[in-house]
Q: What sequence folds into this?
């Protein structure tokens, strides 16, 4: 039986030491491009429409809507020194919407795991809100709390609960809110986004009220298998290496779980009563446990909705691949994901901590 949910683990044994990586990771695109393509369904990756109109509560400069284009996909405009790797076009927004449900499934249908006194919540912020669905759901469930969602891209819907507003902001910059203002600071899947996790948690600690909580959900990008079915050199094995190498140039880790940055960063910033829940995400429905299989199904649906979009900026802009090479790699990834004999999974963690009173 797979131990699919683990609570209060020691730092992850699977990722505590760096895995051996191929020295030729920058040339992996040639390897995949030279292999025969698996059969796959037609895949339209041409969507490049701008997403939803931003909330009217946000004051925006026109340059915000001057989206950058990379290999046919659109990305955020200039916001500070932000360098987002996820597209902001229609197809990717659909993937992000699915991701919200996926992450909620991973936390057993809960929007947070922190032991909040919800009756006393006054002000809450969601850092890196994406399409804003977490903030919308939280604001709906807690109408007496003022909720703010921040992101570097105005891709949130215009119609939101009256107690919610969206703001354009780069979490890597100095936070401009008053000290001791938030009862709850939420951040989810800031993988490959954060320049300095310790600095991020210091800013959060300064803005958090005494007695308030911070919570972070993040995952690893390394595929593991307990039975050795993720073979060395396979597409799933190389998936983690690609993200590792892609994160080197901008200096932003794609493995916050493996580097244990959530717990370490919260502790260094001064948060106390730090707790966390680790979970196994089996990609696909191969796992015999029903709950684990459901997590795996939604995780797979999320990524497959825009697999090329997730890899576009990393492979093309940071690793020098061309579109044909990326497409070949994606085909092999899909083939392995759909192979019932390959039992690959990634690890994820929800960590939370309290600011002392």
A:
């Amino acid at each position: 039986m797979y131990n699919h949910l683990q609570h209060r683990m020691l730092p992850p044994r699977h990722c505590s030491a760096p895995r051996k990586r191929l020295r030729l990771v920058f040339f992996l695109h040639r390897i995949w491009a030279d292999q025969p393509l698996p059969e796959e369904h037609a895949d339209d990756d041409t969507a490049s429409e701008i997403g939803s109109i931003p909330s009217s509560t946000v004051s925006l400069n026109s340059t915000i809507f001057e989206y950058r284009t990379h290999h046919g996909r659109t990305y955020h405009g200039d916001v500070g020194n932000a360098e987002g790797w996820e597209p902001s076009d229609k197809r990717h927004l659909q993937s992000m919407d699915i991701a919200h449900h996926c992450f909620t499934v991973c936390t057993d249908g809960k929007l947070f795991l922190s032991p909040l006194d919800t009756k006393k919540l006054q002000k809450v912020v969601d850092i890196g809100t994406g399409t804003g669905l977490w903030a919308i759901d939280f604001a709906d469930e807690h109408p007496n709390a003022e909720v703010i969602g921040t992101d570097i891209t105005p891709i949130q819907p215009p119609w939101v609960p009256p107690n919610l507003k969206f703001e354009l902001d780069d979490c890597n910059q100095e936070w401009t809110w008053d000290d001791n203002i938030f009862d709850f600071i939420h951040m989810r899947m800031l993988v490959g986004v954060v320049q300095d996790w310790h600095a991020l948690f210091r800013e959060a600690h300064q803005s958090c009220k005494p007695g308030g909580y911070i919570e972070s959900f993040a995952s690893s990008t390394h595929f593991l298998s307990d039975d050795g079915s993720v073979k060395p050199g396979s597409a799933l094995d190389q998936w983690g290496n690609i993200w590792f190498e892609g994160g080197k140039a901008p200096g932003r880790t794609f493995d916050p779980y493996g580097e244990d940055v959530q717990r370490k960063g919260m502790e260094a910033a001064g948060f106390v009563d730090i707790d966390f829940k680790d979970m196994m995400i089996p990609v696909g429905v191969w796992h015999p446990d029903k709950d684990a299989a459901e997590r795996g199904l939604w995780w797979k649906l999320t990524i497959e909705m825009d697999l090329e979009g997730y890899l576009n900026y990393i492979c093309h802009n940071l690793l020098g691949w061309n579109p044909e090479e990326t497409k070949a790699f994606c085909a092999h990834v899909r083939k392995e994901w759909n192979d019932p004999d390959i039992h690959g999974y990634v690890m994820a963690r929800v960590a939370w901590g309290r600011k002392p009173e």
